[in-house]
Amino acid sequence: MGRDETKITLRQLEIFLAAVEHRSFAKAARQLGLTASAVSMQMQNLGSELGVPLFEKDGRSIRPTAIATAVLPYAERMTATLNEAVEVVRGLQGEMDNRVRVAMVSTARNFGPHLVQAFQQTHPDTEVHVSIHNRRGVIAALENRQIDIALMGRTPRRVEVEAHRFAAHPYVLVASPKHPLTRFRKIHRSDLVAHKFLVREPGSGTRMVHEHFFQSAELPLPPAQEMDSNANIKQAVMANMGLAFISAHTIALELAAGKLCLLDVKGMPELRDWYVLHPKGAVLGRAAQMFRDFVSQEGPGFMQEFFEALPLPT
C-alpha cells in the first residue's frame, strides 16, 4: 500500500474505535447512527486498505486482531487531534462563548444542579448543558471531549486534567435505625468486619473508601453486595440489608427524616475533596471559563451554606 494511494478516512477510524470499544458492530452502529451492515462494510474496507483483517468472531461478539490493537492508539490520536482542531475553530468563531457543557458524577446530583442554578442566576446569558453519569461515564466524556467541565471527587488518572479543589467531601458510614450498631459509640474498624455491607462498582469513589478503610488497617474485607447506584444503596440500607460507606452530601434528606443513622466509627468521616476540572490544554470558551472560575471562587461558600445543617460525627 503506497502512502499516496491510501483511501482511509477519519470516519472509518471513528467507526473502528466504536467497534473496538463495544466489541460489536451492532452496538457501534447504534452509537453512531448507522446500520450494522454499514459498520461491517466500512471495517472490511478499512481492513482491505491496510491489507489485514481487523476483527475476528468471538462467539456472538467480535474481537480486534493483534494488528487492530496495534493500530488503536494511532486511530485515537488522529481522531483526538481532529476533535481538538474543531474545538479550536469553534472557539475562534465564538460559537461556544455562551455555552458550557458540564458533567457531574452521580454523587454530586444532590448539590450540582443547585450550584449550576446559582451560576446561571449571576450569568443569565449563558447556556449550561448538564449531564450526570457514574465516574466512568464522566471520564469517558472527558476523554472524548464531549464536555467542557466536570464536577467530581477523585481526579482521573488516565486523563490529564487541570483541577481546582472547591470543597471538602466527607464520607460516612450509615445504617438503618434498626441496626444494632446504632446503640454503640466510637466503634472500632475490627468490629465491622463481621457485618454485611452494600457497595458500588469497582473504581467508584465510595468503593475505594470502603476498601481503603479496611485494607489500610490490614483487615479483611467484610461480606458485601454490589449495587449500581447510591439511590439503591440508600434504599437497601434503610431496609436494614447492610451497612454502607456513602458521601455525606447524598443523605441529608434521609438523615432529617430519620430513615438513616450515622454510625460513630473511629476514623470517620473520611474527608476527600470535590474538584472542578477540565482536560489539560483544552481551549475553553468564555462560558466554560466563567463556570470554572465561579465554582472555584464561589463553590466553597455555596457548599458550606448548602450543607450547614448536615450532622457529622466528630
From TrEMBL:
Residues 8-65 form the HTH lysR-type domain. Keywords: DNA-binding, Transcription, Transcription regulation. InterPro entries: LysR_HTH_N, LysR_subst-bd, WH-like_DNA-bd_sf, WH_DNA-bd_sf. Pfam families: HTH_1, LysR_substrate. The keyword Glycoprotein does not apply. It comes from the Bacteria. Belongs to the LysR transcriptional regulatory family. PANTHER family: HTH-TYPE TRANSCRIPTIONAL ACTIVATOR CMPR, HTH-TYPE TRANSCRIPTIONAL REGULATOR. This is HTH-type transcriptional regulator CbbR. It comes from Leisingera daeponensis. The lineage of its organism: Bacteria, Pseudomonadati, Pseudomonadota, Alphaproteobacteria, Rhodobacterales.
